[in-house]
Automatic annotation (TrEMBL):
It comes from Planktotalea frisia. This is Bacterial extracellular solute-binding protein, family 7. Gene3D superfamilies: Bacterial extracellular solute-binding protein, family 7. Residues 1-18 form the signal peptide. The keyword Signal applies. Belongs to the bacterial solute-binding protein 7 family. Its main location: periplasm. It comes from the Bacteria. GO terms for biological process: transmembrane transport. GO terms for cellular component: periplasmic space. The keyword Cytoplasm does not apply. It is found in: Periplasm.
Amino acid sequence: MKKTLTLGLGALAISAIAAPVSAETFTLRIGSGHPNGPAIYVTDTAKYFVPEVVRRVAEETEHEIEFVEGYGGAIAGVSETLEAIQNGILDIGSYCICFEPAKLFLHNFPYYAPFGSQDSAQAMTAVRSVYNDVPWLSEQFTKEYGQELLGLHGWDNYHLGTTDPWEKVGDLKGVKIGGAGPNLPWLEFAGAIPVQSTLPDGYLSLQTGVYNGWLMFPSAYLGFKFHEPAPNYTLVGFGAMPVNALTANSRTMASLPEDVQKIIREVGQAYEDQSGASLNAAQKRGLDGLAAAGANVQTLAAEVRAEWAESLTGFPQLQATEADGRGMPGSEVMKAYLAAVVAAGYEWPVSYSVE
């Protein structure tokens, strides 16, 4: 981390009045694999977290913060950000936990109980409750990956876009559909062919037939213009997914003055607190934008959705057992999450249970 004195020679005459000689400017590298704009959690990193930290440090301390920003994979790709922060290539980064299926397997727990809350703020309340109840989740970032969790973020409600229209689950049999990874098991009941992919690859892959559909929330489906090669967007309601993290390198944090650390942590929490409303607004913009762009937006029949949800009733237990076998508190987390969603005011459409 680069440090430079903020006081130049020309300011020495008034340094006793303007600022103490110990004042410093700290330059921090921040980035994400996804771009600023189509990915709301990155937009909030760039337009909320960064300027708010800069403002507060300047106003409330003797120091200044400067950020070198690298989004859209400029410094680290979507599956490289966790490691880049761990190694100090990035001081702070935001990323989807979905691209760390091994290292952060259990942190993907919202994916393991689909058809949850349709409202991002409600979903965020439930997920934060689980992190508070099971400290292991936050502690793993520090103990195993040398970084500190500053705040959570997410994706707005997931639906399904396809090149061809469909009405029944059977219509998807044999259709190749892309997804981030942890959500691909949602497709098993439909008989679709899951394809691991990333948002930056989606447009060309849909255009060239690498796959013919995407499990995607409307903000990104519109933002990445997936509606152009795949104009059929079906509202399934798999649920909002708070599975994105904003973390900071532990060594970087320890090297900063305590008052600067405090501000970074407080702004990180504020970044999380505003995420639900930000994602809900993005969901509306996305749906309105898709309709305005001429996409075929339709709602899946309630009985078809219920049948699909029923097919996944064993998924939470399956993933909890897998996590337990990896030495993680899988059953504890999944039980806490199922209960937290209800406590947040949402009624599950199926009877999930975890022993």
